[in-house]
Amino acid sequence: MRYVALLRALNVGGNRIVKMDALKAFFESAGLANVKTFIASGNVLFDSPRKPLALETHIEKHLHQALGYEVATFVRSAAEIEEAARFAPFADEQGASRYVGFLKEPLSAKARGFVTGSKGKLDDFAFAGRELHWLCRGPFLESEFQPGRLEKTFGVRATLRNINTVRKLAALANAAPAAKGRR
Predict the structure, then answer these.
(1) CA 114/CA 50 separation, integer angstroms
(2) 129 and 99, same structural domain?
């Protein structure tokens, strides 16, 4: 099955720099097939017969051993990435930035309330499974919603991607040839 791993906090702000060829090699040495990286922000496409949760744990352990620090990993199937890319919850996105927050698990009612309570002039939100879709109609830093607070307050691990990145990942994941000799 084709998957996308979304790695949090790699190659962001000059910290935890990992070259894409090295990242690809880490995934291959973890026994994953047809590995391809996409832009230098921790997006890796690969094939595996394993289940997503087992893959997250496997990749996190392997990267921790290889890099010496924890790398939160969010694995989605090609179909799940495509679904996130096609989801269109907002009537008007003109001039706004849209992000998809990939979460380890769906938000609790309390956490959803926190997010919904952050809705305002600049921000709008929608939920779809383990994904949080965020529309920001102004500068990111002027938003009242800060994704880091979600993790600190509710213990929810998440990583954000711009919708354009999600759409490109969906296209790449669905265009990939079937794996031969999967491990």
Answers:
(1) 34
(2) yes
CB 123 within 8 A of CB 136: yes
- Token digits of residue 66: 């290889």
Paired sense of beta strands 73-77 and 131-136, if any: unpaired
What is the span of the domain harbouring residue 55?
Answer: 2-79
Token pair of 9, please?
Answer: 């906090």
| pTM for this model (two decimals) | 0.90
Cα separation values, 128 from 17, 36, 92, Å? 31, 26, 18
How many percent of the chain have pLDDT more than 90?
63
Say whether both 12 and 50 belong to one domain: yes
pLDDT beyond 90 at 64:
yes
> Angle formed by the axes of helices 52-67 and 20-29, to 10°?
120
Residue indicated by tokens 């949760």: 53
134 close to 111: Cβ distance less than 8 angstroms: no
Domain count for the chain = 2
Vertex 179 angle, CA 37 and 166, to 5°:
35
CATH code of the domain in which 42 resides: 3.30.70.1280
99 with 153, same domain: the answer is yes
